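Design job #97: recover the sequence.
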């Protein structure tokens, strides 16, 4: 069985992957090649999750001269799952993963430099060009050099370098924290405090408090964390007939940061900042696009919601530290609007179009 490793990139420390085989990526990677002469493995391309985060993953490849991207495959911590059935026929594949929105803090990305089309829901998309113009989202995937054969496994890891068994416990610990249980650390060790927290959570949802770690427990914890996220944070709500791309700016302990793009479908709301808002002032920018990927003009004005507070952006998804010298750093300078939340813990930014 061939393996490769991949590691993450997030807003603070870039994440990474662990790909069995070799991998070329923009960030630090742990690369290992293992050929295991055990019982014949089933012929599949598999993803394994050795992180403490629940991951949504996708894969891209060329088949009969046509580029294809497909996802999302949710992989629980400490689990493996097939993402492509059948033998490995190509020498290059491209992979991407991100932590789910239910987790506290910034999203962890396992990404690279190769852009492929995606959508928020399940997808199988042909072609990798003009994603936005075709109504798709886009993410940057990491290249994986493989060898044609029976199977291949890519393992997503984080700097703590958990084993698969430890990752399962670490994932439960992180989700308990996401559900407001006071654990002191995410370490992958199944101690008394972790078991007590599991049993307390099980009692809270009227489930037998056995303390067992199972896929059912994961799903219950994810549901609880998602419910918590709905009670806090900053969201964009799109009340126009157009697709909207939005971004946010904010102050952190490291200084100002900006992040985007958040895809907001007509009539939908999307979370831009998770968890309770800890600052009074935030900054927002959004722009609508029509079916041709162009910003519509209504009443002689482009349908943009911005202001005079400069932050750095770029055309593709971004998480940028600092708001100075944007152009010198190869970025764009964009005017954001200042939002005074009045120190509320939750804020909704509603986007409407002016009358024609």
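Job complete. Output follows.
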């Amino acid at each position: 069985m061939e393996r490769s490793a991949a590691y993450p990139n997030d807003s603070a420390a870039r994440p990474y992957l662990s790909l069995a085989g070799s991998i070329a990526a923009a960030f630090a990677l742990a690369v290992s090649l293992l050929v295991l002469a055990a019982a014949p493995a089933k012929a599949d391309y598999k993803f394994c999750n050795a992180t403490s985060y629940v991951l949504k993953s996708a894969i891209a490849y060329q088949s009969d001269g046509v580029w294809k991207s497909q996802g999302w495959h949710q992989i629980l911590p400490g689990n493996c799952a097939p993402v492509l059935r059948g033998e490995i026929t190509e020498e290059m594949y491209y992979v991407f993963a991100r932590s789910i929105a239910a987790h506290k803090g910034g999203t962890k990305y396992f990404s690279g430099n190769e852009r492929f089309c995606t959508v928020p829901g399940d997808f199988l998309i042909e072609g990798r060009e003009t994603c936005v113009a075709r109504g798709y989202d886009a993410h940057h995937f990491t290249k994986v050099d493989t060898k044609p054969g029976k199977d291949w496994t890519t393992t997503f890891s984080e700097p703590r370098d958990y084993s698969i068994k430890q990752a399962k416990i670490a994932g439960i610990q992180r989700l308990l924290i996401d559900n407001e249980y006071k654990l002191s650390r995410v370490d992958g060790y199944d101690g008394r405090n972790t078991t007590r927290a599991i049993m307390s959570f099980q009692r809270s949802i009227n489930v037998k408090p056995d303390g067992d770690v199972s896929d059912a427990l994961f799903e219950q914890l994810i549901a609880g964390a998602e419910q918590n996220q709905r009670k806090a944070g900053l969201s964009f709500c799109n009340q126009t007939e157009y697709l909207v791309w939005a971004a946010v700016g904010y102050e952190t302990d490291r200084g100002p940061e900006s992040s985007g793009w958040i895809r907001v479908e007509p009539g939908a709301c999307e979370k831009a900042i998770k968890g309770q808002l800890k600052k009074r002032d935030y900054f927002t920018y959004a722009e609508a696009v029509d079916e041709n990927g162009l910003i519509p003009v209504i009443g002689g004005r482009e349908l943009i919601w911005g202001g005079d507070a400069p932050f750095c952006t770029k055309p593709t998804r971004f998480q940028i530290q600092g708001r100075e010298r944007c152009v010198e750093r190869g970025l764009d300078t964009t005017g954001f609007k200042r939002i005074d939340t009045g120190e509320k813990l939750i804020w909704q930014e509603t986007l409407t179009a002016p009358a024609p």
